[in-house]
Amino acid sequence: MPKYLLIESRDPFDSNDTRFCCDLAQQLAAAKNEVTLFLVQNGVLPVRPGARSADLTSLAGAGVRVLADTFSLKERGIDEQRLASGVAAAPLDVVLDALAEGAKVIWH
Amino acid sequence: MADKKTITIAIMDAPYEDARSTTTLRLIDLAAKRGYNINVFAYEGAVLQPFAAQTPHANAVHGRSVEEENHFIPKDAIAALMREAERNGGKIDWVNCGLCVDERGATNAIAGVRRGSPADFWQMAEASDNTLVVATR
Question: Is A95's CB within 8 Å of B27's CB?
């Protein structure tokens, strides 16, 4: 099964185009691909349960693995234990692992 | 090392401007610790990341000396990453886009950085297990 890792570094409260990653992830998962959405930098801001977290929970429900960079969470004072449903904290190693495994890795 | 990999990363952000630079250096650090070979193609403002004339400074506003300020200097971080990769049996091949260097007068790079062109990026990507383009906006 083809593997995809989509990296979202943008803040949905600041960028109108963050739907790109969610839409692409959903479509790739629907087409029977193994898909991970990795949130990094200000891309982790919507993992706080609230206004923009429903998209991530919905994505997880559609079969996409949704991860948030541990370092980025710490930098922003976001508690790993209080993430939106369907989102897990993970180290940046996830990106390197995906590259090493030959996954298609896309930065946004 | 049986699982030794070669990864190519393209970056275009100038130092001190965006968190993408930090994330990219973190990624290179992880790869260096694993003993991977890492190719970096730096273009546009990113050719200033290993610029040798970067200098730490004091912080007069907060009354801190150069040592107390402990300013982050990208060229020193990159040199340290190159040493880290070598210690672990890997190598960092850092290529600065030549035209981007000329435009910015950034010819004075640290040791280990070479001048190249987008053709080098293509060749590095072709010879790598995988490639990541850290796209800007």
Answer: yes
d(CA B35, CA B92): 10
Q: Alpha-carbon distance B89 to B86, whole Å?
A: 5
Question: What is the CATH number that goes with domain B6-53+68-133?
Answer: 3.40.1260.10
Helices (runs of H) and strands (runs of E) counted in chain B: 5, 5
Complex ipTM? 0.94
- Which tens digits make up the pLDDT trace of B1-13? 558 999 999 999 9
Number of domains in chain A: 1
Q: Does A24 touch chain B (CB under 8 A)?
A: no
Chain A residues touching B7 at Cβ < 8 A? 96, 99-100
Residue pair B6/B132 in contact by the 8 Å Cβ criterion: no
